[in-house]
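Hello everyone,

My group is preparing for a crystallization screen and wants a predicted model to guide construct design. The compound we'll soak is adenosine-5'-triphosphate. Before spending weeks at the bench, it would help to have a computed complex in hand. I've included the protein sequence and the ligand's SMILES below. Output in structure-token form would be ideal because that's what our pipeline reads.
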Amino acid sequence: MESRQAPAPIELLVELRDVVKIHRDGAVRALDGVSLKIPAGQSLSIVGPSGCGKSTLLNMIGALDAPTSGEIRFRGVPLTAIRAPDRLRAREIGFVFQTFYLLPNLTARENVQMPMFGDGRSDSARVERAETLLALVGLADRAGHLPSQLSIGQRQRVAIARALANEPALILADEPTGSLDSRSGAEVMDLLGRLHTEHGTTLVVVTHDAGVAARAERVVRMLDGRIVADDVSG
Ligand SMILES: Nc1ncnc2c1ncn2[C@@H]1O[C@H](COP(=O)(O)OP(=O)(O)OP(=O)(O)O)[C@@H](O)[C@H]1O
Ligand SMILES: [Mg+2]
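Reply:
Good plan to model first. Here are the tokens for the complex, ready for your pipeline.
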């Protein structure tokens, strides 16, 4: 990956300090003291065996769940000091999951509009933006289709278009290629890679696919709730 411009102060988009997460039943320390700095504009993959805490970590970064102890900062501000984390999520973060979570009774065009409701956009502007995003992911001609009328790879691309609705600074993707065959998986990763290089979107991808992981500038390896390796390429 080419380095961008001359050295400038690195903005930390997300910082975790000694984060511990014990899930409600108390049996498992899903995260056992994780510290991680994610500079704005970086692409990072998180790898490790099933159950090592990858999804838990991603959910913490995305303010979907709160740590048991430790601190998470977004642009330097502790998440606990942010009064409306749902607004932070809606404005700054796009989520992409293995199983898409598209609403089955809504068309692709309608699914992509979902995060835009309440942002003051007019109906027509919202529809127009949804169609622009669907075109970006190569689905301009599928806007009126229901998820069930789309291929699995196309569904994931609709989910990515939806994740981009509010031009997030950060995309968090949990096994985004996990439900896809290798060709659709490569297309989805090309798309995410393009967002990263062309728009500077910070990208965090959880994956157990070594090929997917290797596309990132940085690979963080986890084991038993801890980071055991952190390699920056190039
Ligand atoms: N809601 C929950 N309640 C209790 N334990 C949980 C919960 N979610 C996850 N865990 C446990 O926390 C640990 C980490 O889970 P996590 O889902 O983060 O792993 P993962 O690395 O994403 O695994 P996979 O690759 O299988 O998706 C596991 O032992 C899991 O059983
Ligand atoms: Mg997981």
